[in-house]
Amino acid sequence: MVRVNEKPYKVVKARPKYDKLSRVIVTDQPLELFGRWQTEEYMPPIAFNGKVPRNAYGNVELFKPCMLPIGTV
């Protein structure tokens, strides 16, 4: 995760991409790049009563083992 109040090391022009909603190719979008020294490890939320927290859509977001909430198996 990017640290709080970090400014991007570099800003480049992003590649063009197609917006499905408006059916237009979006160009000239800025893309902020951050270095490793500007980031920190993700701190997972604490599980209460052994239950894994879910997002607003009811999904559990676990992309890596380090994302498993504290207090779960």
Automatic annotation (TrEMBL):
GO-annotated biological processes: mismatch repair; nucleotide-excision repair
Domain Rad4 beta-hairpin: 1-45
GO cellular component: cytoplasm; nucleotide-excision repair factor 2 complex; XPC complex
Xref: Pfam families: BHD_3
Molecular function in Gene Ontology: damaged DNA binding; single-stranded DNA binding
Taxonomic superkingdom: Eukaryota
Name of this chain's protein: DNA repair protein xp-C-rad4
Organism: Ornithodoros moubata
